[in-house]
Amino acid sequence: MRKASLTIAFIALLLAFAAQAQAIRLKDMTSFKGVRGNQLVGYGLVVGLNGTGDKSATTFTVQGLTNMLTRMGVRVTPDQVKVKNVAAVMVTANLHPFARAGQRVDVTLSSLGDATSLGGGTLVMTPLKGMDGQVYVMAQGPVSVGGFLAAGEAASVSKNHPTVGRIPRGGTVERELPFAFKDMDQLEINLDTPDFTTAARVAAAINRGMQGVKAQASDPSTVKVSLPPAQAVDRVGLVAKLENLEIRPDTSAKVVVDERTGTVVMGEAVRISTVAVTSGALSISIAESQQVSQPLPFTEGQTVVTPQTEVQVGEQKAKLKLVDGGVSIGEVVKALNALGATPRDLITILQAIRAAGALQADLEII
């Protein structure tokens, strides 16, 4: 009971903090069209492993190592190569839209073969390409795993995930993305959560707080902002002021329920019509026992074992609780807390209230 009360009280506390911080910055709830990261990928080899690399049966690792040595002027055949100290990896990185040539980015390595650990290895120079097939980043450097694997003949122990590693600032930008910010005469702001009311509020806040800028919401997720000529204003300063405008986003009334973990999240717009709720628990206990039946002396009877079953039924007493209509989410939490509802009971109660037509919100079960 105490755990249930603490859980529901925690929900009420979160709602109280949310009510105090309704207005958020525009940059925290939107993104600018075209200003996004670009995913890069490449195939590489990690060398210098201490016997934790791919096995000899990993054909693509043998071929990759043979091709690399051939390009360096060392001619070998695949059957002359042992790859236990080499692992084939897929190298990925995220390139910022404003990254400039010579800047460094982090890269992530994931084992492709049957290597047991990438710890202690070094990534050989690997080109990372975009969807257009162009090379944007060159990656190379020692791999940081943050875990380990120790194995013997009959047992092994590992920490974290030793077949995935990172190279902080291990990639060098070789090609810049074509993005001409200074030549743009219009910005498109995309809302992370599309909503008609929020889009209208964003446009109104921009028109009210930014001189020389005109904004219009074209749909629930897009607000178009017309910028003055580049020579008339500092574009960077203007966008910096724009993204720091505070907006109060509108939210729909929704209750999200995760039955697997017993988690319930309710939005501040949730309302409940007048309804009476009671919650009780029915418990059934079944006990099995064996009794021995002995025959009377000097009779021809036989000793037999007869099973005995005892069934007990108990029901928890519960009071009927009246929840007034149109109350806030805080009052809803207090009313449900007064019932002594556990998180699991709360899920059942909300579903029942929804079925009765008294829950004025969407009930989403994930």
Describe it:
This protein has 366 residues and is an alpha+beta fold. It has helices at residues 2-20, 59-71, 196-209, 235-243, 329-338, 343-355; strands spanning 24-25, 30-32, 38-47, 86-95, 104-111, 122-129, 135-142, 148-151, 156-159, 164-173, 186-191, 214-219, 222-226, 246-247, 254-258, 263-266, 271-272, 275-277, 282-293, 304-315, 321-323, 359-360, 362-365. It has 3 domains: 23-34 and 181-247, Gyrase A, domain 2 (2-Layer Sandwich), CATH 3.30.1360; 38-173, no CATH class; 253-281 and 317-365, no CATH class. 21% of the residues lie in helices and 36% in strands. The protein is flat and about 105 Å long. Mean pLDDT is 79; it is low at 16-21.
Key structural traits:
alpha+beta; Gyrase A, domain 2; 366 residues; 4-stranded antiparallel sheet; flat
In short:
By secondary structure, the chain is α+β, with helices and mostly antiparallel strands. Helices cover 21% and strands 36% of the residues.
- The SSE order reads HEEEHEEEEEEEEHEEHEEEEEEEEHHEE
Spatially, the strands of the biggest sheet line up as 3-4-5-10-7-6
Give me the number of helical elements. 6
Q: Cα distance, first to last residue?
A: 25 Å
Structural class: alpha+beta
Strand proportion, as a percent range, falls in 35-45%
Mean pLDDT: 79
Domain count:
3
Shape: flat
Q: Quick one: how many beta strands?
A: 23
The percentage helix is 10-25%
Biggest beta sheet attributes = 6 strands, antiparallel, barrel
- Regions with little confidence, pLDDT below 50 for 5+ residues: 16-21
Rg, alpha carbons: 33 Å
